[in-house]
Amino acid sequence: MTPVPGFEGRRVAVFGLGRSGITAARALKAGGAEPVLWDDGVSGRMQAEAEGFALEDLTVADWSGFAALVLSPGAPLTHPKPHWTVDRARAADVPVIGDIELFARAIAATPASLRPKVIAITGTNGKSTTTALIGWVLKQAGMKIAVGGNIGIGVLALPPPAEVEAYVIEVSSYQLDLTTSFAPDVAILTNISPDHLDRHGGMEGYVAAKARLFQQMTPEAVALIGVDDDWGWKTVNALNDRRLRVSTITTRTPPEFIDPTGGVPVADLVARLPDHVAAFDAGRFIIVDATHGKLVADGVAIADLAPARSLPGRHNAQNAAFAYAAARAVGVSHGAAVEGLMTFPGLAHRMETVGHLGAVRFVNDSKATNADAARQALMSYPTSFWIAGGRAKDGGIEDLRDLFPRVAKAYFIGEAAADFAATLGDRPHVIAKDMATAVTLAAEDAAKAGGDQIVLLSPACASFDQFPDFEARGEAFRAAVLNLGATPSVHG
User: Fold this and answer.
1) In the prediction, which pLDDT does 346 show?
2) Is residue 30 classed as helix, strand or coil in its secondary structure?
3) Cis peptide before 80 (omega within 30 of 0)
4) Burial tier of 87 (Cβ tally within 10 Å: 0-12, 13-18, 19+)
5) How far apart are CA 142 and CA 135, in angstroms?
6) Does the reported pTM lie above 0.85?
7) Type and span of the H or E element at 86
8) Which of 89, 189, 407, 415 could potentially form a cystine with 69 if both were Cys, beta carbons 3.0 to 4.6 Å apart?
9) Contact indicator for 445, 484 with CB cutoff of 8 Å
């Protein structure tokens, strides 16, 4: 746990007693504060009471006595309308903050000689894989690291600064909305595409929330920005105006045209390094370093990602480039960084091979909760038997039309099934309704097709119509695959 200083002897309201709320209360108490907890749900209040925390109904509390409100990221700050606790806090001139802000204050209070590096990752897609990948690379390089935040362990439950050389933290737009002083040493924005627009009042609000990752950035810090979308370039330009250290990450721009601020681009080897076509197969990805205006070693790749079995596809090549650049920024050697990339075991529910049935491979990409994430998965294979559906995001799968020729057949589940079928039109598909049926039908059709085939779960939807979260959906896919008699896989 990381104790939070600055509130000694003062009452701090904590609303929302899920993982981040309870953890924040513990960290506040450890730092000498007097946390006052409340939740709309009975179960959260019961857990808090069992741990000996003070409970107080915040609907009737005297807000003038609170030093701050620590708000759960699940409660809306601004849209569709502020949570009632936010209204009460603002009326009493009480600052509204979150667990990332508490963590930032704990880091800032740590003596400089003991202060670990902080690497923070946000973005619409790829942030969890990038976070885990950076953590893996740093750990394999021998660093004492802690990984958490919006992935795995709540940030305040991580070991205290004196026990860590580097924190690797995933942060969501909801968490960033509740920060004022967070200043990571390496700040990463993977990409931006429409998501959570209802919570941010539209695309501009969503982008502004993501950009808060850089609001307190110092000249010594490094920003790594994905520029495969226009929003990334706008972020780069804004940071350049502040004369900050920015490196761009791209999978599309040839190295000879890379932004003059530098970067660690990922490039398709054949398209980007024509002199080496004879030596490599089409579609292979490498990492090249052009931070000094030219390719390292006159165009020699610093990392060929072909052996990295858990990092297939263009999107994972981008994740690998972020990880390499972040590792180098905190002092990891080139060799150790590359070795870490090659040995990464992958993450559950993110392009995870869960089993094989003959020549058919089953890939669990349940984390693909929007069309842009599903695009990355569909692009990773020449053809696939695609399982999709759930509770659709705005636009459904309309933006994936250019990839429909890669779909051998689609199997739609959940609320979006009929709409997705209409979008796919006369291309082969079936409305399977539930996961078990979809897996069975896809496995049969893939086997009939012969040769090496991929059955891909990449839903392009939220899971909440049939499952409590994407993890439960991915586990249902895994169970259905294994029930067919498939041989389970440990790694991708």
Assistant:
1) 80
2) helix
3) yes
4) exposed
5) 11
6) no
7) helix 84-91
8) 89
9) no
The dihedral built from the CA positions of residue 345, 469, 189 and 156, taken in this order, carries a sign that is: negative
**What is the distance in angstroms between the CA of the first residue and the CA of the last residue of the chain?**
33
H-helix or E-strand containing 487?
strand 487-488
pLDDT reported for residue 290: 61
Sign of CA dihedral 157, 12, 49, 60: negative
Task: Please state, in angstroms and rounded to a whole number, the distance separating the CA atoms of residues 170 and 129.
Answer: 10
Using an 8 Å Cβ cutoff, are 471 and 345 in contact? no
Cβ atoms of 98 and 182 within 8 Å: the answer is no
Q: Within the chain, which residues score under 50 in pLDDT?
A: 253-262, 266-283, 293-300, 491-492
| Cα separations in angstroms, 481 against 90, 136, 361, 366, 388 | 51, 28, 10, 14, 15
What distance lies between CA 21 and its chain's CA centroid?
A: 20
Strands (E), 136-284: 145-149, 166-170, 186-189, 222-226, 245-249, 266-268
Asked whether the beta carbons of 224 and 239 are under 8 A apart, the reply is: no
Q: Which two tokens stand for residue 314?
A: 């263009």
The token pair at 287 is 């990492």
Cβ atoms of residues 189 and 210 within 8 Å: yes
* pLDDT the model gives residue 151: 83
Residue 168: other Cβ atoms inside 10 A: 34
